[in-house]
Amino acid sequence: LLYAQLELELELSADVRGTTAARAVHVLTRLTENGPYGPYSGPVSAVHVLKARKAYEHALQDCLGQSCGSA
């Protein structure tokens, strides 16, 4: 779900995307960085979005490969 939200935000242009959506992308990218949370200070760089996208892809693949949720 988080990955889908990130993908959706990337498809919307910066002009259409509201502050709330930009903040959501900020939070989603920060979650993948495993560092301390920092306050929203503006749009997330494309590099951080790409890294977050890849992290969510890998997490999904790992989950699917390990039969996530069925223990």
UniProtKB/TrEMBL annotation:
GO terms for cellular component: catalytic step 2 spliceosome. Keywords: Nucleus. GO terms for biological process: negative regulation of RNA catabolic process; regulatory ncRNA-mediated heterochromatin formation. Its main location: nucleus. It is found in: Nucleus. The keyword Transcription does not apply. InterPro entries: NRDE-2 (IPR013633). PANTHER family: NUCLEAR EXOSOME REGULATOR NRDE2, TETRATRICOPEPTIDE-LIKE HELICAL. Belongs to the NRDE2 family. This is Uncharacterized protein. It comes from Mustela putorius furo (European domestic ferret).
